Amino acid sequence: MISISVEKVRFPRMVRVHQEFPRPRVEDIPQTVAEQLGALGLESRIRPGQTVALTAGSRGIADIATVLRAVVDFVKSLGAEPFIVPAMGSHGGATAEGQLEVLHHYGITEEAMGCKIRSSMEAVKIGETVYGTPVYCDKHAFEADHIGVINRVKPHTDFHGEIESGLCKMMAIGLGKQYGANHYHRAFLHYPYQEILEGAARVYLESGKVAFGLAIVENAYEETARLVAVRPEELIPTEKKLLSEARTLMGRLPFDELDCLIVDLMGKDISGTGMDMNVIGREMFPGLYPLPEGAPRIMRIFVRDLSPLSYGNAAGIGFADVTTTRLVQKIDKHATMMNTFTSLTPHGMRIPVWFDTDREALAMILSTLGLTPPERSRTVRIRSTLHLTEMLVSEALLPEVQRHPRLKVAGQLEEIVFDENGNLLPL
Fold first, then answer.
1. How far apart are CA 226 and CA 153, in angstroms?
2. Distance CA 323, CA 326 (A)
3. Model confidence, pTM
4. Which of 146, 329, 371, 375 could pair covalently with 211 via S-S, beta carbons 3.0-4.6 A apart?
């Protein structure tokens, strides 16, 4: 029997490193929203007294409450009556109350937004894609005179193409509620992701319900880099262009190969898979939807905790190699199960081996690197896959750090320190 003494494991020395990315940003969000929407001539489409449903998702979009309030104010300026609908597929435990709670924690409340929020899991079928996949829409949204689609455009964690995560996905999966999300994910296992998503989006656009789209592009610092309003007929080609721009701005690890990645937080507010697969280099559907070229190769992943804004949804934990007791105790089985089974990814909720302390977890996982001693391992610690501008990097990576144009050493090499409970100090 092999026995590993935690006390005898030598951990790598770590140094704090800053990573720089391009940083375009919108300085005045309300004014930019008003200018973008004002340029569309919406007064010829949206009449006084008409209702406009506005989409609000479950992702941790940096300025989403500010953006939504600005859209609400603009729609009111047209004399129309806006209201917000949770557009997040099966998230929030696939309940109306759960989805409303998710929005509240992002500051999206009726008081803050100045309009009603109508939360329901009811959806109506509005058409089919060319493959026969039914297209569903939130009942409240479809009963409105118009729909305003608002979402962040970014690379998807699992599927890759000209259309990934953005306005089309918000229509198909977000507004499709649990019904639509499940049908689309079933179709993704047989037909190309982009064709299904774009086909569902076209059903929405051809229905005449969509009055406008508002795309948000963020930089790697979790700031709003661009806000782009589009007419329905321009939505799909504009999203394709914005996705290319979003790829150039997204955060990424500066190393091609690691022995161990320590992730302090995972969660649905961080990524649809808890951890962005583009960052951790793991495939949701191995062999079916491969990662894009340039994804890192990481031997071991240690996830320490679950974000409070994930509300117990630990979808994606199955892509870690070890975790902690505290994370496991925060898992809401129902919320996680509803999400992973809706997206046909039950393997994403498999719980890895867990340990009571960070010291135990790190010692054990660093002892599985083959011939590489733990103290010489290529190890990186990050806050989350959404926060990549600052990290701790092991001594073995220091020569690469010093040669890298985006990296700057911001401290001295230091031993890893654990608190009295055996856990890592805050990053």
1. 10
2. 9
3. 0.81
4. 146
